[in-house]
Design a protein that fits this description.
Elements (H helix, E strand, L loop, with lengths): L5 H15 L4 E4 L4 H20 L6 E4 L8 E4 L14 E7 L2 E12 L5 E10 H10 L10 E6 L7 H11 L7 E6 L4 H6 L7 E3 L7 H18 L1
Parallel strand pairs: 1-3, 7-8, 8-9
Antiparallel strand pairs: 2-4, 4-5, 5-6, 6-7
């Protein structure tokens, strides 16, 4: 299957955002395929959230609290959740009466006290608000879901699996973690099969609707079981 193009990814991001807030378009600070791929997976996570969320609770928000943002700004590089350097976009939903936020490219403080960033993360809204109030990255127990997104024109190397396992080891209390890629790797798949390691979601890309649907449904089940 051909590697999806940047315009394809952008079109799908806009489609998802518009389904939540009419006439909201995405702006990528870093106009590259890998940045767009993370935003595309963010859109799939939003679709999963919509399947489980309390009625009419899914919406778009932004760093400067001006919902719904007309332009959904996607970070060009990892940064602080509390940053208002630009009006960075994120999503909000409610599940079982509790509010959550879905972020792109924000930093967390691991159990080692080292800063790490995740391409996509979900955090309870009260913990996100605390981070904004204290201007400090959320700690290792705060995220309830983390995702690393890898957009490759070739197969994944085993170093990718080792890296995400190492990253997850600093966040042992996070119940949901996934490596999401348009590519594949037998060795990475085998490496991540061990209990308590991040799950591998492969062949997630535009033009592969069956895998998209499988991913969204699997994620929705994890939200029901772990949020």
């Amino acid at each position: 299957m051909p590697t999806p193009s940047l315009p394809q990814l952008k079109a799908l991001i806009d489609e998802v955002l518009n389904a939540i807030s009419t006439d909201t378009g995405a702006y990528l600070n870093r106009n590259t395929a890998d940045a767009a791929y993370a935003a595309y997976v963010f859109g799939l996570a939003l679709r999963a959230a919509e399947r489980v969320a309390d009625p009419n609770s899914v919406r778009l928000d932004s760093a400067k609290k001006s919902p719904p943002p007309k332009t959904f700004v996607i970070r060009g590089s990892p940064g602080a959740l509390h940053s208002t350097d630009q009006d960075y976009g994120y999503a909000v939903f409610k599940y079982d009466g509790r509010n959550y936020e879905i972020h792109l490219g924000v930093q967390y403080r691991g159990s080692s006290d080292v800063l790490h960033e995740f391409d996509i993360s979900i955090i309870p809204a009260q913990d996100a608000d605390e981070s904004r109030k204290k201007k400090r990255p959320p700690g290792p127990s705060k995220p309830c879901a983390v995702f690393e997104c890898k957009f490759y024109a070739h197969r994944l190397g085993i170093e990718i699996g080792r890296a995400i396992v190492g990253l997850k080891s600093d966040f042992t209390g996070v119940p949901i973690s996934r490596l999401v890629s348009n590519s594949e790797s037998d060795s990475v798949a085998l490496f991540l099969k061990k209990t308590n390691r991040p799950k591998l979601s492969k062949h997630i890309e535009p033009g592969n609707p069956d895998m998209e649907t499988e991913f969204v449904y699997a994620l929705a089940d994890e939200f029901r079981n772990s949020l």
